[in-house]
Amino acid sequence: MRIGVSFGMIGKEFGGEGMKQPDRTTNKCFACGPDNPISLRLQFEDDGDVVRTSFTPRDEHQGWPGIMHGGLMATILDEAMAQWCWRRNIPALTGEITVRFKKEVPVGTGLTVEARLEQQKGRLLFLEAEAVLPDGKCAATAKSKFIRMTGEQAGPN
């Protein structure tokens, strides 16, 4: 089954050739997978319409000396939004994400990350997430468009 919308996937559309159903017997997700030896092991909780996790970057998570790598921040924000979908049995993939970095995150400083749905239009879900430092200041925000998978691609929930 092909879907006529492509969100930057190089040479592939969602549901197109090369996309396979996820193996649901193991979880090797880089962000949350217990079966991945280098996983961040993020654990999420629901609080009403919000999904929440916490993360404290270690030395191996830095870009500039002593500062959390921005790509890792983007990964955690993306995973929080993906978890919002997953925890509601909505099989969806990130189609687009925009991250705004507002404040550096020193290694060893805890973050609270929250994600929520902004709106839904057909198969598109518009989500937002934010990473907050212990002093309440926002370190980064993200907005994304997730596309709901359908048919065989969605797999069993």
Q: How would you classify the quaternary structure?
A: single chain
Structural class: alpha+beta
What is the 3D form? globular
Number of E-state strands: 6
Ranges where pLDDT stays below 50 over 5 or more residues in a row are: 1-19
What does this structure look like?
This protein is an alpha+beta fold and about 160 residues long. It has a domain at about 45-150: Roll (Thiol Ester Dehydrase, Chain A). About 15% of the residues lie in helices and about 30% in strands. It has two helices and six strands, in the order ββαββββα. A six-stranded antiparallel sheet has the order 1-2-4-5-6-3, with helices on one face. Strand 1 and strand 2 (about 50-55) form a beta hairpin.
Brief digest:
The protein is α+β, with helices and mostly antiparallel strands and 157 residues long.
Secondary structure: elements and pairs:
Blueprint: E1 45-47, E2 50-55, H1 70-86, E3 92-101, E4 111-121, E5 124-132, E6 138-148, H2 151-154
Antiparallel strand pairs: 1-2, 2-4, 3-6, 4-5, 5-6
Main attributes?
Thiol Ester Dehydrase, Chain A, globular, disordered N terminus, single chain, alpha+beta, 13% helix, 157 residues
